[in-house]
Specification:
Chains A, B, C: It comes from Pisum sativum (Garden pea). Chains A, B, C: Hexamer; each subunit is composed of an acidic and a basic chain derived from a single precursor and linked by a disulfide bond. Chains A, B, C: This is Cupin type-1 domain-containing protein. The structure is a homotrimer. Helices cover about 25% and strands about 30% of the residues of chain A. In chain A, strands 16, 17, 18, 19, 20, 21, 22, 23, 24, 25 and 26 form an eleven-stranded antiparallel β-sheet that branches. A seven-stranded antiparallel β-sheet of chain A has the order 1-2-3-12-5-10-15, with no helix packed on it. In chain A, strands 4, 6, 9, 11, 13 and 14 form a six-stranded antiparallel β-sheet that branches. In chain A, strand 16 and strand 17 form a beta hairpin. In chain A, helix 4 packs across helix 5 and helix 10 packs across helix 11. Chain A is elongated and about 85 Å long.
């Protein structure tokens, strides 16, 4: 047996191996939720921009593949503008810190905000005629914001501290008709790739494609005809020639060239020198600041807004898709759905509180546990859930269908824990500080079943026989303890 | 070439082979319905419990993969209690034999059944105060029972004969957000695995996982912190420490230990010594027995109940999710939707007759063919269907889209036949005994198209040209024979 | 090392290779939309029939796998009859040329068309009693026709020119519960396979199946019991024995034999000698011809029909599924939804204009661009789209989420271009002739976002900062050019 033959053999083996390994990740996908061990996840990749930072979790993490979602954490500096982008997957954004404004571009909706003709910008630029655009929406810390699939939106930090937001992209949502790869389309600028892991796969895909036995493709027209202009940007407009853009938009060639954005080093979050001067019916910023400080005032205003909104909804006509509410504050203490003064509080935003979520098929929960407070064992009936720790520290326990503890660890600020549908989970805040987290859920009417309520709903005799308990013990089990799932341990014994 | 090298080579080959074979089953999945041959399936696995038997079909059977479902047959002995369990997949249960009671634990629903304080249990146990729990539901032979995803339920046989039930788990249902592996979560007890085939895959998955190139996982906290207590049970409560359970439920340590159920050898169906004494508005058991014997009496009562229910539904408010009807008897002769006194009868339960099925996206059909009776060729327009033979014997023919006979065999009691969507199927009872079967369908408004009705709906000239028939033959084809799909062969020639 | 061993080794390698290669296409599927290059596709396969031609696109084309659809182009000669067939995937048909009639067989619907008893067929055949059948529907060039999943339909060309139609089979539609392989079930005749590529996979599947470790299958009954009759046809009725068919349909053995259609060489489109004489309330064919010629007359009639329909819908009762409208003409100039007298016009059929599309979850768009006319850059928010060129020539540009131009080529009559969800696309007609195309969309309320409208909806300052534009340039960008997406380049510079 000659050396060359052996080499050939080795080569073949390598080829087969790589072909097989390529499919291994797919094997994971189809049994994607057979997780015998769940890990707390921190971001795997970061993109630095001129005025901010984008961090992403690798969507190939087994936990994220099971949940069928991708996550992005964005930090936008003061005066930073996150460029308009859209995604085939619906997005749910939670504002961890700061405040800002955002604008959606809803197709078929009018430009309802008109700027007066006489206004002067601070930068000396001059508007020959008044600008008009679609509605601008303010948001602040604790808000959940819903971005439908395919709709471009931009975000601007008009506060004094960094704006920090965590976004869920529900890639397995029925609205996403592409594969489960997370995709962000930037309209302009020169953004860097946010999920490089999926891009590697794409290259793999590319190599394979050439070995694909194509049928009768019309090959004679396939060579790309436009080569005079290199594809320099990464925005969707950079894919068109400036000549074509100039023709289509009826602009000068220079404007068209800038639309393609070549050689822009600012990446997806750019600095607005002097700040963005955007019209807004809320009045001066100073007023706003005051309100922020006098929180109760703010609360009242929100309630008022709420009242108006519910009145509007009675009418049934006024809330079109163009003026739909897309945000809801779920961190406000006064809004809590569950509350135990010793253990903590829970608020939920779902399609009953924020109707637009019906179209996104997503919902969210905000949980704040006080020191040692316990969110007793429960499971999500109809949703996967993603727990992101905002502040503090605590401990999370997750049990799978075989009774195996797949997670039992401390968690801290910035970590993400996936809790698959029906897996039983319990959270407990640490001894020194409380635990604050947001939970994204992949169902707009996500429902939770609490173990203790299940025990209460079950006849005592069934419990006695199921668990081998005496009648007295069953009674103790059903009647002692809190009625709700938020518990503060009575004893001083520690659970760690 | 040295021996060690050859061994290494062989080893490599084996490794590649296993990697490839691992993916082979996935290959089947994606072309999951290219079945050139369908087999009648009998259970592949059995779990013996203290008071019953659980039998499951291997979900990796190509036919079941195509239909995207899993099946379980449970036999519960008299006084047997099937422990509370839930699944992320909705379940449809058909009662083949016997009678029993069951309880669901619906989250957010009140404990509407209250037991008087003075009652004494037969076993000498004593209730210091009255027990209360959610609604208890009776069921009997011929009932279809709908269990929504994520909702725990328990079942108890209060009859004198074994209770036999066949359950469909619709793992490809939109309600199941995990992968297509069937999962049953037991709240308590020490259940054995019901689908060991999927567990092997899990181990395979486990091995692979360690070769997964993890990103920036927070490894320093990942070691499981709680090792003092071994994970002895298989219920979800066994995954929590008894200390944590005691703290959370505010119970004694001994109660908490029993909740974790270590060393329980009774498995998922346990015997209730002396029988379960559960309150029930239906009165004494003797009365019930009488009714069972005087069947017509029973029928009347059901009709009455039916009338009340439809009146209630008119109101539209009273039937909340908490009191929703979850069962319907489809075997009663008086309820038949199709009937031919010589050939047989068919009853259907769908979301129009049992509204809760709308949420499960499932329906069922009960078919009883008399001796030699034929259910003429037809296909399911919008559903896969699973035919389970309850009694008797007969013959089933199934044809695929290429006109190939993929199944043409005798079937007998206990066999399962998968009929994929649009595949054309015909059933015929045997000469000696009739054929009785239940059909589960993966659509809550499953519709059937009958070949003969299609022929009648088609213009005579189109038929003449399509089949090369003379006008006289077309007229014979369209007008002779039954109007309905239940046929008794007029001639004495046998079809076998 | 001996030769035999080496051969064995090679064989093993080949086996592993084939196993691995088999899975490669699946790998493509799961990352199915990572298309770094899109190709214009022409049909890969043709089936010649007695009176027509069926051409199909290979569903394994990466572009079609991404979109999750299959396509068929049928040419039916005058007097040609396309035999009754059905598919588990819903179909949307666009009539490119000619006119015809079609009949659906909707289950549970009555035979509402009755033929008088005295009529004599031209061919000398004689009807002893009047024929009755379900509604017959006329259609003509420019019509979109919706065929629900599982419903058989036949088509007949009663015009003088070939009838040409392109059909979309939405294999990834929720209505299709089988795998993504396109399937066409023919009720009768001896059709040839329309998608041979998927059949090869089936054979691969078959080989593998025998190595599958089956559990407890009831093997002793599995041998096919009926071998006296070979499976000669490819229709679903050919899968049943003629004896069984005779028994079931109560017909003579000769009729039953013809239902099985052995030795029919005519394939799926058969010639009707002397033409089909089908009753139709529209009156004589000559009258119809007249109307066709006086187009405006035809238009009026359609409007009248439209008016009646909307009145009927007010009632809400009359339009049952049995009489539902399933077609709409989208090519008529008078019906255009978008119109620019220099650039072109666009019409859309969706579930708001044709309610049955709600059940199919599909819609369509007809676009006619005049010479040099541009359909400015836009994207489909919530659908994949398939662009099929009917007439003329032009150029299409498609850009993906990374800003890469994945398609920038001339297209011509008969070519198909897949535009995945959110990919940005622009079309332009050629200099010498216009461009006419139909777009199938995989959503019944497909929505489009136009880049220019997005720019207009965005505040000027955001645009200035995003693209590095001066205020004057932004104003030019927002205010110059057409308001709509149909543009005719003002300058004479060519974009090619």
């Amino acid at each position: 047996m000659s050396k060359p033959f052996l080499s050939l053999l080795s080569l073949s083996l390598l080829l087969f191996a790589s072909a097989c390994l390529a499919t291994r990740s797919e094997f994971d996908r189809l049994n994607q939720c057979q997780l015998d061990n769940i890990n707390a996840l921190e971001p795997d990749h970061r993109v630095e921009s001129e005025a901010g930072l984008t961090e992403t979790w690798n969507p190939n993490n087994p936990e994220l593949k099971c949940a069928g979602v991708s996550l992005i954490r964005r930090t936008i500096d003061p005066n930073g503008l996150h460029l308009p982008s859209f995604s085939p997957s619906p997005q749910l954004i939670f504002i961890i810190q700061g405040k800002g404004v955002l604008g959606l571009s809803l197709p078929g909706c009018p430009e309802t905000y008109e700027e007066p003709r006489s206004s002067q910008s601070r930068q000396g630029s001059r508007q020959p005629q008044g600008d008009s655009h679609q509605k601008i929406r303010r948001f602040r810390k604790g808000d959940i914001i819903a971005i439908p699939s395919g709709i471009p939106y931009w975000t601007y930090n008009h506060g004094d501290e960094p704006l920090v937001a965590i976004s869920l992209l529900d890639t397995s949502n029925i609205a996403n008709q592409l594969d489960s790869t997370p995709r962000v389309f930037y309209l302009g600028g020169n953004p860097e790739t946010e999920f490089p892991e999926t891009q590697e796969e794409q290259q793999g895909r590319h190599r394979q494609k050439h070995s694909y036995p194509v049928g009768r493709r019309s090959g004679h027209h396939q060579q790309q005809e436009e080569s005079e202009e290199q594809n320099e940007g990464n925005s969707v407009l950079s894919g068109f020639s400036s000549e074509f853009l100039a023709q289509t938009f009826n602009t000068e060639e220079d404007t068209a060239k800038r639309l393609r954005s070549p050689r822009d080093e600012r990446s997806q979050i750019v600095r607005v020198e002097g700040g963005l001067r955007i019209i807004n019916p809320k009045g001066k910023e100073e007023e706003e600041e005051e309100k922020e400080q006098s929180h109760s005032h703010r609360e009242e205003e929100e309630e008022e807004e709420e009242k108006q909104r519910s009145e509007r909804r009675k009418n049934g006509l006024e809330e079109t898709i163009c003026s739909a509410k897309i945000r809801e504050n779920i961190a406000d203490a006064a809004r809590a759905d569950l509350y135990n003064p010793r253990a903590g509080r829970i608020s939920t935003a779902n399609s009953l509180t924020l109707p637009v979520l019906r179209y996104l098929r997503l919902s969210a929960e905000y949980v704040r546990l006080y020191r040692n407070g316990i969110y007793a064992p429960h499971w999500n009936i109809n949703a996967n859930s993603l727990l992101y720790v905002i502040r503090g520290e605590g401990r999370v326990r997750i049990v799978n269908c075989q009774g195996n503890t797949v997670f039992d660890n401390k968690v801290r600020k910035g970590q993400l824990v996936v809790v698959p549908q029906n897996f039983v989970v319990a959270e407990q805040a640490g001894e020194e500080e409380g635990l604050e987290y947001v939970v994204f859920k992949t169902n707009d009417r996500a429902a939770v079943s609490h173990v203790q309520q299940v025990l209460r709903a079950t006849p005592a005799e069934v419990l006695a026989n199921a668990f081998g308990l005496r009648q007295r013990q069953v009674t103790e089990l059903k009647l002692s303890g809190n009625r709700g799932p938020l518990v503060h341990p009575q004893s001083q014994s520690q659970s760690h």
